[in-house]
TrEMBL record:
This is Probable branched-chain-amino-acid aminotransferase. It is an enzyme of class 2 (transferase). GO terms for molecular function: branched-chain-amino-acid transaminase activity. GO terms for cellular component: cytosol.
């Protein structure tokens, strides 16, 4: 089925959507994005994603393409037009184009480019992969130093994912100065003796919207959370581990660098947090 996508004010068949070859998103990765999940035809944590988008734009002195209310309307309309029950809405805003390539930013009156499209993913909540759990490898983190800004510079995370696939695993966690930063497209956690450990927020990692919700829900469920730096060896010696992201919610991790965690199946805390997260988020969806 041909999707209906959104480009700069227009809803169009995907085959008719166009962006300039001079767009800075294309030439310079001068662009930010958000991925919002859809469950039961409704948006999960739209507010969190809208707030983070504004922050990413502000950090890069990029203009806002539209208001938050307009953004919500576009999301909802695309979900409806594409008949999405479970899936994702991808949003990208770029600094636009003034019709040539130049390292200097274009003039202030250059309009940002805004593109949104849906991805239909039936079975996203009742995921087979989450029942098995993910195998991960560790790789060096060689990304730039502003990972808190959700830019489209995703070449290294994509390469990390490919390194994992080549090694017979599902994903990679990245390591900088001896400590785990995050997964290629998710935040990373391990659990030892009932305590959930994850890296604290800084410019080194993306401030995950799912992370924020899951940590709040963990505390409400009387689970202990420690936000601190941790090594891959600590994670390998853990009882269980997991990742969080808008596209996979809470994903149990069952193996790190070939070492099975616990009995090698999804751990009880990861499973419980996944259930709580899905239940609470579906209730609050808009
Ligand atoms: N990725 N860390 C990185 C590097 C990410 O790319 C993501 C999300 C996260 C989790 O953030 P959130 O909970 O807000 O989704 C952490 C999205 C899903 C993606 O690139 O598809």
């Amino acid at each position: 089925m041909t999707r209906t996508v959104y480009v700069n004010g227009d809803y169009l068949p995907e085959t008719e959507a166009k962006v300039s070859i001079f767009d800075r998103g294309f030439l310079m990765a001068d662009a930010v994005y958000e991925v919002t999940s859809v469950l039961g035809g409704k948006l999960i944590d739209f507010e969190g994603h809208a707030v983070r988008l504004k922050r990413s734009l502000d950090e890069l002195d990029m203009a806002e393409p539209c208001t938050k209310d307009e953004l919500l309307e576009i999301h909802r309309k695309l979900v409806e037009l594409n008949d999405i029950d479970e899936g994702l809405v991808y949003l990208q805003v770029t600094r636009g184009s003034d019709g040539d390539r130049d390292f200097v930013f274009p003039s202030e009156d250059t309009k940002p480019t805004i593109v949104l499209f849906t991805q239909n993913k039936p079975g996203l909540a009742d995921s087979a992969a989450a029942k098995v759990g993910a195998k991960i490898i560790s790789i060096e983190d060689i990304r730039w130093g502003r990972r808190d800004i959700k830019t489209v510079q995703l070449l290294y995370p994509s390469m990390g994912k490919m390194m994992a696939k080549k090694a017979g695993a599902d994903d990679a966690w990245m390591i900088e100065d001896g400590h785990v930063t995050e997964g290629t497209s998710n935040n990373a956690y391990f659990v030892k003796d009932g305590v959930i450990v994850t890296r604290p927020l800084s410019n080194d990692i993306l401030h995950g919207i799912t992370r924020k919700a899951v940590l709040r829900m963990a505390e409400e469920a009387q689970l202990k959370v420690e936000e601190r730096l941790f090594t891959i060896d600590e994670a390998k010696a853990a009882d269980e581990a997991f990742t969080t992201s808008a596209s996979a919610f809470v994903m149990p991790v069952v193996e790190i660098d070939g070492v099975a965690l616990g009995d090698g199946t999804p751990g009880p805390i990861a499973k419980r947090l996944r259930e709580i997260y899905l239940e609470e988020s579906i209730k609050a969806a808009v």
